[in-house]
From TrEMBL:
Matching InterPro entries: AB_hydrolase_fold (IPR029058)
Keywords, ordered alphabetically: Signal
UniProt protein name: Dienelactone hydrolase domain-containing protein
Signal peptide: 1-29
Tree of life domain: Bacteria
């Protein structure tokens, strides 16, 4: 039956063509979504700071929510990169604040936390494309301490994302005066600077009207995002978030950083109503 043979041959040719195309389709499916086109601006933050503002695409006439990144004492912007990437992909503007001169461990020379926060919030309020009512402070280490310690004197913000802030009685006292309606407290279970019991007390110290989300990263140490320049599985000693001569042991972990970035994005989106 020649006609049947021809039909069978055509089916086999079609199946062979589909088989050849499958690798191309699979590779496209595995490719990460492209990052949105981002505009970058340099802002002046008071008399002592500068900020790099990254703006994702946004509909005309609508002001953006913004996450302000307050870095740890090493001042390295690389440590905030994973969080910034996730936030920008989610449509949130990111303002990376620098009051330490580009990376020097200059804790004693930093402006008072309230001065830093006021400078940041003033810059946000002046910017025509940012919404001053939808600001989340994302603090890493000492930056998280600054976000909480300066909050009683600076204008209130929509939320605080506090990553490994060095949970201690001073922060717990500051938490009682916090005016932020939502807080994310994120720390690792293997972090000697943020022991579980102390972080539990910090989370419980916020006023009753504050919605606190405390999350623990299993096996993560202090500064899990400090993986730039550290061999896989290696360790590094970072400046203690409370300052002074003490150091904090860190075993950076890319996986923990990506998990933390997802947590931060979810918190910021829920807080700012994105």
């Amino acid at each position: 039956m020649p006609h049947l043979d021809c039909r069978i041959a055509r089916v086999w040719r079609l199946l062979a063509a589909l088989f050849l195309l499958l690798p191309a389709w699979a590779s496209r499916a595995d490719e990460p979504a492209p990052m949105p086109e981002v505009e970058v601006e340099l802002l002046r933050l008071g008399e002592a700071g500068t900020g790099i503002l990254s703006l994702p695409p946004q509909p005309a006439g609508r002001r953006m929510a913004v996450a302000v990144v307050l870095h740890d004492l090493d001042g390295s912007p690389i440590r905030g990169g994973a969080y910034a990437d996730r936030l920008l992909a989610g449509g949130v503007a990111v303002l990376a604040a620098d009051f330490a001169g580009g990376g020097a461990e200059s804790g004693p020379d930093l402006p008072h936390p309230a001065v830093r926060l006021q400078a940041v919030l003033d810059a946000v309020a002046r910017h025509a494309r940012l919404d001053p009512g939808r600001v989340v402070l994302l603090g890493l280490g000492e930056g998280a301490r600054a976000a909480l310690l300066g909050g009683a004197e600076a204008p209130p913000v929509a939320g605080l994302a506090l990553l490994y802030p060095g949970c201690d009685p001073l922060l717990a006292l500051a938490a009682t005066a916090s005016r932020a309606p939502r807080v994310l407290l994120l720390h690792g279970t293997a972090d000697a600077v943020n022991p579980a019991a102390a972080c539990d007390r910090l989370a419980a110290a916020f006023p009753p009207g504050c919605r606190v989300s405390q999350r623990r990263l299993a096996g993560a140490t202090y500064g899990w995002d400090a993986y730039a320049g550290v061999p896989p599985g290696g360790a590094i000693r970072l400046a203690h978030p409370a300052g002074g001569p003490g150091r904090a042991w860190s075993r950076p972990d890319v996986t923990a950083t990506l998990v933390a970035a997802d947590r931060v994005l979810g918190f910021v989106l829920a807080t700012t109503g994105q």
